[in-house]
Amino acid sequence: MSDTDDQVGGLEERASGPGDQTSFAALRIIQDPQPRIEALNNQNHSGRGRLPITTADGMLYLPFESVLHLRADGCYTHVFVESKQYFTCIGLGELERALPSEIFHRCHHAHVINLLKVSQIFRNGGHRVLLTTGDVIEVSRRKWSALVAAMKALR
């Protein structure tokens, strides 16, 4: 047993309720990233795969086609789907590598978008995209030409 297991085990003994146990389960997942890394590396990038994200309750598998966009929040990531938003301890870069690059594009240091969900791109008044849901996402000037090229490749 490692020092980390001893530390978590000691904390679990002092937990006072079911909510605390869930927190420690999430802590154990954060401390042992190997299962999530293996799940991300084993993805099928055919466009029919699923994006595994770690939640406080365990692993959740989202179909690629349901993911609208992802937004970084420090070391964490918000994953947006049609009707929900999920918060995961997996970083944006790690999730980006698990997504098919043909339909997902890193348009900003804090954003990855599903190109199939883009309804309009705006250059005037700041570079941004409008998604089919009405969400507006910023695009960095540096990544603008790559976004335009990726959108043309989808035709």
Task: Supply the CATH architecture.
Answer: Beta Barrel
Number of domains: 1
How much of the sequence lies in strands comes to 25-35%
Reported by name, the CATH topology is OB fold (Dihydrolipoamide Acetyltransferase, E2P)
Gyration radius over CA? 18 Å
Distance between the termini: 54 Å
List SSEs in N-to-C order. Answer: HHHEEEEEHEEEEEH
Per CATH, the class reads Mainly Beta
Q: pLDDT below 50 for ≥5 consecutive residues: which ranges?
A: 1-34, 40-47
> How would the global form be characterised?
globular
The helical percent reads 25-40%
Question: CATH homologous superfamily?
Answer: LytTr DNA-binding domain
Fold and architecture overview:
By secondary structure, the chain is of the alpha+beta class. The protein has one domain: Beta Barrel (OB fold (Dihydrolipoamide Acetyltransferase, E2P)), CATH 2.40.50. It contains five helices and ten strands. Helix 1 (3-14) runs antiparallel to helix 2 (18-31). Residues 1-34 and 40-47 have low confidence and may be disordered.
In short:
The protein has 155 residues and is α+β, with helices and mostly antiparallel strands. The chain is built from five helices and ten strands, in the order H-H-H-E-E-E-E-E-H-E-E-E-E-E-H. Strands 5-4-3-7-6 form a five-stranded antiparallel β-sheet. A three-stranded antiparallel β-sheet has the order 8-9-10, with no helix packed on it. The protein has a two-stranded antiparallel ribbon with strand order 1-2.
